[in-house]
Structure formats: C-alpha cells, structure tokens
Amino acid sequence: MSRAGIYLDNAASTPVDPRVIEVMADALARHGANPTAAHDPGERAADAVARAREPVAAAIGAAPDDLIWTSGASEANNLAIQGVAAAFGRQPGHMITLCTEHPAVLGPMAALEAQGWSITRLPVDANGRCEPETLAAALRPDTRLVSVMQVNNETGVCQDLAAIGEALRAHPAAFHVDAAQGAGKLPLDVEAIGADLVSLSSHKLHGPKGIGALYVRRRPAPHLAAVWHGGGQERGLRPGTPATHQILGMGKAYALAAEHAPAENRRIAALRDRLWQRLAAVGNLVRNGGPEHVAPGLLNVSVGGVHADALHYACAAGEPALAVSRGSACAAGSAASSYVLRAMGREPALAAASLRLSLGRFTSAADVDTAGRVIAAHIERLRAMAPMDAPADAVVA
Predict the structure, then answer these.
(1) Whether 99 is catalytic
(2) What is the pLDDT of residue 333?
(3) Are residues 48 and 244 in contact, defined by beta-carbon separation less than 8 angstroms?
(4) Which of 10, 109, 245, 358 is 20 to 30 Å from 205 by CA-CA measure?
C-alpha cells in the first residue's frame, strides 16, 4: 500500500496472489483466441477454460459443467434472482431472504417487489443468525426462491445452511446461496445442503476482479430463465465472450485456496482473535456477531464514546494509514449506520461507530499488532477530545 499502510479490508477485496497474476499473464500471452471459436487456438483456449472450472466447482462439491461464468458474485446474484422471476413470466410469486443480505440480493428483490412480487425479509437475532424454523414458517405455496448468504459480508456471521436446506427439501422453492465471502475458505457442499443456485466470487479469494460464477443445479434444474440475450454461451444463460485470463485466474485462486485453506484459516482466526483482545482492552467495545458463528477473517466492532466519522478519518489519515471499512463496500457512499448492525439490535449511533476489520492471506502478526495499537490510540485520543455518551454493553469473546 502507499504510505506504508496496513490493509485490513479483505472482505471488500483481496490483493491478487502473485501466483494468480503469473497464470493470468501467461493466459494473456498464449490464449488470445475466442474460446468459442472452432479452430485450434480457440479450442486450446476452451480447454484451458474447462480446466479452470474444476477447482472452482470442487470448492462447492459441484460438477464443472454446473458453473456459469459471470462478471462477479453481484451479477451471479442478479442472474439467480431475476432469472427465477423471469422463468415464471407474468405470474409474480413470493421470495424469501434475510434483512441482512448483501445489496446485490436486496436490490434485485426490491426491484421485483415493485413489479408485483411479494418479498419476505426475515429478521435475525442479536448474533446475526436466522433460525431455520423462522424461515420454514415463512414459506408459502407460491414461494419461488429462498436466498440466504453463507457468510455475512459485514459481520462474518455464518448461517446454518444445512438446516435451512433441510427445511426446504419438501418445498419446490429454489434455494440460492450467496457464497461470495465463504466459498473456497469454508466448507460448502451443494448436495449436502440442497442448494440449487450458488453465487461465487474471485476477488474475495485473492483472485482477479471482474470474474465470478453461478452454480446452477442440473438435476433437478431450478426454474431459471436468461435475463440477457444475444449469445449462446454459458448454457444460454449468460451471453458474451469468456474472459479467458480472468477465468484462469479465478481457477488458480480456488486451487490455491483448496491447498492452503485449513492452515490459513487457523492462522487468520488466531490473528483475528489477537486483534480483538488488543482492542477490547480500551473498553466499551461491542463485538458484533457471536464469535462461534463468525468466519475466521472478519472482526466487526462497534466503538462507544466516539464519533463515527472522526474514527474512520483517523484510521485513514493516521500514520500508518489503516485501510478499514464500516461495512459493505457496495454501500460505502452511504452516511447511514449499518442496516446489518441495526437488524442485530445495535442502536443507530453504535451501529454507525463500527469498524469492519478483515484479514487475509497476506496479513501478518506485525500488521495486527500495529493496527491494534494504532486503533486503540485513536479511540482513546478521540474519547479524551470529545467524549460522547454511548451504551457500555461490550460483548467479550
């Protein structure tokens, strides 16, 4: 980073692994042909794309041909949600999701709601989890889709997908999982949970931006129609020339994750807990999300007694500069407090005064120790300068 800063925003995007860059550079040099072209260079490119599907599919227990390449998980979410709606034509039905989902899920559902669809947004508890029984009770005969994320992008809270999938087995609704934050890092088996549609990301896993995938079950296939037209690529569901170098980069990123994930998760979780212990010492901090249900790389804390904007400015402008966030990068332009944290019962002021600290493959112990010291110093300085009243309901891990 510039200014010798420390990067703690891996939930927004991860630095690309040098080994991925090497694969992509080689692909740009060797595979300039269109992978759909019927000649030798095109077929070589197509073979490379086919091989790249294998580690991505293996990460979720799927077959390589079950994947539809997209420009990222946000597009995959849109294709899943709008594609199901398109399959039912002019017969609006019902969809279920959680009120804490990513904007790439809540947005298309809101658009469908304006077109006559009925949308149920289920609440979560203080730890950010939705009980499977609550979801099962919300099912209706005309429920067409249930969309639940694997790992929340703000808090790292993991939903019980196996139990949710079991609640849906006797219902014809399609089960969609936004796995952008978890796939390749945490176990996910589409057969075990009964998922019909799964959105995957590359740049959350030290791969390139601009590429993702949607798993689409083949048997039994969900009701899913194309929402874009003009090409026959990707089973007719997503037209456009495949971006060979990005696809190969995503494949390499997933291959590396499969090789390193268990040990990497243990190391990152230990660093995350070390960071929390350093921050908790300043007092009046709330750890958002029950630690037993949070993915290894995420730590979301609300800081009592400080002004949210001042804290974030101090982190960004201090020395060393800290790359942290309030929550979803897709909502970074909003001055409002986090809707995810408010749904978990945080007061608006405390929900606004939050830091999302996300660690990754290249986060070191020195990074964590320095960041912990610097953030704690910022908090103590700001409290001394302009103390604010805030509830002292710190949650200790």
Answers:
(1) no
(2) 45
(3) yes
(4) 109
